[in-house]
């Protein structure tokens, strides 16, 4: 299509006649990939029109959301959309009519758009603070971030909305978890359900959805950069993250009986058809998370105690991926190195010396 004709087509997405709008916006969708610059004309006028159209007729809204998802990879468009507080408030409010209506087919597009918008750093301040009454069926509290977490958990199998799985919210959480205040939220036990948010999503590290597994793996890794939370990450009474990091990277290899008996119960006697995650990048993410959790001495000691090394050794041997092999080597170097004595050990040694003199 000629540039002038394409410009005219995009101009029609704001036409007052809904039939004209529908034809124009559905025809414009492919050009959001092949000719994205056309939507940036006139100081992003078409982007502003698209933000209005997300509350139009469902078919028009679907195309508007699709175009916005395609275009928000562009920094200028992302800034325009993510810093528009009125639009952000609108989509977070619209989310719940979208999400609780079982016949609504646009819910996953909304999740994809939120995932893109979360790449704008300042958006997390709005998302952490925003409150609204949760749909009764969601059984959540008033914080939007908790509502989205509960939606991600309860909607994974189509039971909340038969046309949506909300998998892309995993990418949304992963980007938010790069920020300290979000990391703290994800590790804090919530008053309304007495649960730690990370415990809700950790169960998806072996889910069939690649998007969900990948996003959850990245969320856990990013949250783990908050070193003060490592005791909670490793405690069986809190997040208890180790089984959910180790199972996806475990294959069906046989281990020395002594090593196996010291492994976590979930890692013992795995079935002969047990397979590692099919994506080496996800395996890499889990190994990097394990390495982050060796930042503290208790983390290193626990991994030695539960025989993480043999599992990493087999992963290094069987996964043909340079990044995975290098990450395995880094983790093994940490686990196998000698430790400096602790303060308690030094004091005990000094007492022994005094007694021997």
Automatic annotation (TrEMBL):
Pfam families recorded: DUF383, DUF384
Q: Where is the Protein HGH1 N-terminal domain?
A: 101-283
Q: Which domain of life is it from?
A: Eukaryota
Q: Which biological process terms from the Gene Ontology are attached to this UniProt entry?
A: protein folding
InterPro entries in UniProt: ARM-type_fold, Hgh1, Protein_HGH1_C, Protein_HGH1_N
* SUPFAM superfamilies xref list: ARM repeat (SSF48371)
Q: GO MF terms on file? A: translation elongation factor binding
* Location of the Protein HGH1 C-terminal domain: 289-341
Q: Which family does it belong to?
A: Belongs to the HGH1 family.
What is the protein name for this chain? Answer: Protein HGH1 homolog
Q: What is the originating organism of this protein? A: Pseudallescheria apiosperma (Scedosporium apiospermum)
- Top-down, what is the taxonomic lineage of the species of origin? Eukaryota, Fungi, Dikarya, Ascomycota, Pezizomycotina
